[in-house]
Amino acid sequence: MIPTFNEAANIPELLSRISAAVPPGQEFSVLFVDDSTDNTPEAIEKEAVRLPIEVRVHHRADPVGGLGGAVMEGIALSVSPWIVVMDADLQHPPTLLPELIAKGEETGAELVIASRYTGGGDHSGLGTRYRVLVSGFSTSVAKALFPKVLRDVTDPMSGYFAIGRDVVSRAQGTGAVRPLGYKILLELIVRSRPRSVTEVAYDFGVRYAGESKSTVREGLRFLRHLLRLRTSGMPTRALAVGAIGLSGFLPNLAVLWALTHRTGLHYAAAEVMANQVGVLWNFVLIDRVLYRGRKHMGPRARLLSFIALANADLVARIPLMLLLVSGLGLTPLLATATAMTLVFALRFLCVDRFLYR
User: Fold this and answer.
1) How far apart are CA 240 and CA 235, in angstroms?
2) Which of 180, 246, 249, 303 measures 20 to 30 Å from 79, CA to CA?
3) Where does it reside (predicted)?
4) Is the backbone of residue 6 left (phi > 0), alpha (psi -120 to 50) or beta?
5) Could you tell me whether strands 29-34 and 197-201 are parallel, antiparallel, or unpaired per DSSP bridges?
């Protein structure tokens, strides 16, 4: 399965090498999922006529999800037990195709990754020192955020891998795969949790023709994707919401100090106003960072609902605290901590399941 975007110049050489790499008699087909604005689909169809292997092209009029979306759409269109994903620029050597599948069948692994960083691998095809640093940094960040699931993976940023259909079906069945940008392997590992992973070393080659699609914008999308993956579980989102709430004390205190010391406003009125600033701070971080991409309401409705929940939090906390002290005999300190925990949990559930469901 090969996602393409304006790779017409690479198609003849790519298909020739793929055809030469496939052992005689092995069932094999090539599916291109194309988002191109040039003549890449025509180039594929022209070359397919002269080859002994089956070649198909699926052009997407609406390239939803970028390269990752193309990969998932291609996987859905394929029927083979093993799906190999590779790039069209020939930096991924087609000669490795049979070895990836053979390695999976021999070891029983559900995922076989072509790695630039395992023993015998080489990443010199990245070219510039900048790209080498970006690749190494991205790999380090991903492994730091997902130490357990990436424990045996040296190259989670690889775009060249073979994955069993059962693993993909498991990930698709959860409805959790939401590709963003070009690092689909990391999402598949995190979402589907393959039972066993193995790697094959390879030399990452130099692009055959055309220009790299890696940009600063794609890098930023990748970092945003990492955050989304890391906060995909409810416990982690709850911790993130709590941390954002704590950060809201900083603007709250700054505005409170300014209103009481600079304007002479009564502290009670100043606290009400300062609290709203803290609420707005929390809303911006939660709305724009933590729950980006999970919005079913308009921005005004989200903001008003969030403000209402935040202020209901304050109103509910005091009577609940009094009830815990007078009704259950808790100390004021313990009652306050219990009330804050219960109210926070209720507010988080409202935010997570209603506001950003």
Assistant:
1) 9
2) 180
3) Membrane
4) left
5) unpaired
Identify whether the C-beta of residue 239 lies closer than 8 Å to the C-beta of residue 152: no
Please give the Cα distance from 166 to 154 (Å, whole number). 23
The whole domain housing 293 covers 234-355
Mind giving me the DSSP string for 161-226?
EEEEHHHHHHHHHHT-----TT-HHHHHHHHH--S-EEEEE-B-----SS-----HHHHHHHHHHH
* Structure token pair of residue 23: 């052992």
User: Looking at per-residue confidence, does 209 or 261 come out higher?
Assistant: 261
Kindly state whether residues 25 and 77 are assigned to the same domain.
Answer: yes
Question: Average pLDDT of 248-264?
Answer: 81
Boundary (domain end) residue, out of 204, 230, 256: 230
pLDDT given for residue 215 in this prediction: 54
Residue 106 has pLDDT above 90, yes or no: yes
Q: Which amino acid is residue 217, in one-letter code?
A: R
Q: Are residues 125 and 141 in the same domain?
A: yes
Instruction: State the total domains in the chain.
Output: 2
Q: What is the mean pLDDT of the chain?
A: 81
Same structural domain for residues 80 and 155? yes
pTM of the complete model beyond 0.90? no
Say if residue 204 is in the same domain as residue 267: no
In the chain, % of residues over pLDDT 70: 84
Locus of tokens 């995909």: 232
Shared-domain flag, residues 208 and 277:
no
Residues above pLDDT 90, as percent of the chain: 22
**Cβ–Cβ < 8 Å for 103, 202:** no
d(CA 349, CA 238): 9
